Amino acid sequence: MRVTFLGTGSAIPTGDRYQSSILVQEDGHSLLVDCGSGSLQRLQQSGVGFEAISSVLLTHHHLDHVADLLPLMKARWLAGEESLEIVGPQGTKALVDGLLSVHEYMQDRLELQVREVVADDFTVAGFDVRGYETRHSLPCLAYRFDDYLTVSGDSEAFAGLANFADGSGILVHDCSFPDDVDVSNHPTPDALGKVLAGKDIGRVYLTHLYPHTEGRHTEMRDSIARHYDGDVRFAEDLQTVSIE
Hints:
With about 240 residues, the chain is an alpha/beta fold.
């Protein structure tokens, strides 16, 4: 399995990080997990391109995770592609219907397959996936791809999500702010380290990074390391990781 971080940033822009988006590839299958602003540009820069994306899996519906969804639809239509599958938690159909009601000329341009999933097992784009409900300000699902990959979506750090990820080769986890920021719905490094303590995870990549984290990566890793002794790294846009 290959995982490419297309966007590792947040709702507040930085020069180097676009909004949330991850490309998952295995055995000829490609899946876009979230589709924040900049996803289309990063897909082109990665060499994969939007034409290869026929399925999108959304963790939740905040703007920084869905902003390029309609641009993806339009780009595929203009390129002569005929379909797009959009999968996500409760409310995904209403989200897509709302986008198309604002931009009516996009209605019926593609064969759209919209599917809502819950915290259970399902299949999308040839991948077997399990969902898990996170703790965020909107309904949000974390996703686990067998023992290869777990993507947290946006969430506070809590034991249930850490247990869900236990045994994964790679965990991609929201770590939006350093410890001195008083925040809910997202974890701080100290809180994340505490729940990961004792878990068997090959490597943890921190993502959904607000500008507050710039210049403080070492400090944040050290905070996690006080509780969790695993391999923790900061994800970077266009970085690709292979999972055996």
